């Protein structure tokens, strides 16, 4: 998926998390939201143009649950400062939304690699080819949901 799709999906999920957690607008929340936005695009650091793809392979180890799991575990163990805690949580949410979105593309992901090298989404559900009509529809639906949530609906 394109970066915009990952970012829109993250924003949709982030707004839902904010509503569910009953968080009020604040500087801390804004900073955490940006940390999540970074998390939603950072897994593609292994893209074929980055040089890391030669070492890690695209959709390799950084497209697994291990990075966000480590962040969440650190969050629970350290709990040092509300800003850092909230930022770590939103960063992990952003990373996980990236994984979820990439899991429904034809290439899919192997989220539990190297413990399990299979893909968890069946091939028939991996319909969001990068740049396709379905990805554009995915972006539109997320933008619509964002508009509804932010309008107070």
Explain what the structure shows.
The protein is 60% helix and 0% strand. The protein has 153 residues and is mainly alpha-helical.
Search tags:
153 residues, mainly alpha, globular
Topology of this protein?
Layout: H1 3-21, H2 27-41, H3 52-56, H4 66-78, H5 82-103, H6 133-150
Helix pairs in contact: 1-2, 1-5, 1-6, 2-5, 4-5
Tally the beta strands. Answer: 0
Radius of gyration: 16 Å
How many individual helices? 6
Main sheet properties = none
End-to-end gap: 28 Å
Q: Choose one word for the global shape.
A: globular
Helical content class: 55-70%
List SSEs in N-to-C order: HHHHHH
Bin the strand percentage.
Answer: under 5%
Provide a brief overview of the structure:
By secondary structure, the protein is mainly α. The protein is built from six helices and no strands. Helix 1 packs parallel to helix 6 (133-150).
């Amino acid at each position: 998926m394109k970066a915009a799709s990952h970012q829109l999906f993250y924003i949709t999920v982030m707004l839902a998390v904010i509503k569910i957690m009953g968080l009020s607008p604040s500087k801390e929340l804004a900073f955490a939201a940006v940390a999540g936005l970074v998390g939603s695009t950072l897994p593609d650091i292994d893209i074929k143009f980055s040089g890391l793809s030669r070492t890690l392979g695209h959709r390799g180890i950084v497209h697994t649950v291990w990075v966000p799991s480590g962040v969440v575990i650190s969050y629970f163990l350290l709990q040092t400062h509300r800003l850092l805690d909230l930022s770590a949580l939103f960063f992990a949410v952003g990373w996980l939304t990236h994984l979820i979105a990439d899991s429904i593309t034809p290439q899919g992901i192997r989220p539990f690699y190297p413990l399990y090298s299979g893909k968890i989404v069946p091939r028939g559900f991996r319909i969001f080819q990068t740049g396709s009509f379905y990805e554009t529809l995915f972006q539109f639906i997320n933008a619509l949901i964002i508009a509804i949530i932010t309008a107070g609906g």
